[in-house]
Design goal:
It contains eight helices and ten strands. It is α/β, with parallel strands linked by helices. The strands form four sheets. Strands 2-1-8-7 form a four-stranded mixed beta sheet, covered by helices on one side. Strands 3-6 form a two-stranded antiparallel ribbon. Strand 4 (about 90-95) and strand 5 form a beta hairpin. Helix 6 crosses helix 7 (about 170-180) and helix 6 (about 135-155) runs parallel beside helix 8 (about 180-190). It is elongated.
Length: about 200
């Protein structure tokens, strides 16, 4: 994996975190991640609540479409917070108070944008996939170094053979290579990196 990413977040039990915490540097190195941290699953998941039509429909009859519309317009996090605190979410429909319980809702969940997540038993892992310019530059530099290593193999250069690189590239790529010149030179045994 040559493209670095910013962080990996784990929602795990205390005993599992105590085993992983001392190995975060190794995890970062192996996965090409800048940081590993412990966090809550709700930090990378988003929730959408919908009215459970089978449960609420018979009770509300003709008022059901208005209720569906009101719940769709509500903030799902507010609905869930209310349900967590009081086990009730109240909707006003034309002056009539309608109390809804947790069983009156269906909750859909998915990772927030720029996150991907996986669950395996009590282990919840999320990877932040957003890349800023710094991460993109580092990825370009790593890809470039990989390409140079491939050229070294094609030319049958010995492992200790030193090289000079002369690169003509668009300005955006030059900026990335210049920013990571020391990494590129170290990885490719390059004595000099010239950008023309």
């Amino acid at each position: 994996v040559r493209q670095p990413l910013q962080r990996l977040v784990l929602d795990v039990a205390d005993d599992m975190w105590s085993q992983l915490e001392s190995r975060t540097e190794l995890i970062c190195s192996e996965l090409n991640i800048k940081e590993v941290e412990r966090g809550r699953r709700c930090a990378w998941m988003q929730y959408k609540v919908k009215v459970n039509l089978r449960v609420v429909g018979p009770r509300l009859g003709q008022r059901l479409p208005a209720l569906v519309q009101a719940v769709a317009a509500a903030d799902s996090d507010d609905v869930l917070t209310s349900l967590d605190r009081t086990d009730i979410y109240v909707v006003e429909l034309k002056g009539t108070r309608v109390e809804l319980r947790r069983s009156d809702f269906l909750v859909e969940e998915e990772p927030r944008p720029d996150w991907c997540a996986v669950e395996e038993g009590s282990l919840n892992i999320a990877l932040e996939t957003h890349m800023d310019e710094s991460l993109r530059h580092e990825g370009l530099a790593r890809e470039f170094a990989h390409g140079v290593q491939g050229l070294r193999r094609q030319l049958n250069l010995a492992l200790e053979d030193r090289i000079v690189l002369c690169v003509d590239a668009p300005e955006k790529i030059k900026a990335a290579l210049l920013q990571h010149a020391s990494y590129i030179c170290a990885e490719t045994l390059c004595d000099k990196l010239q950008l023309v």
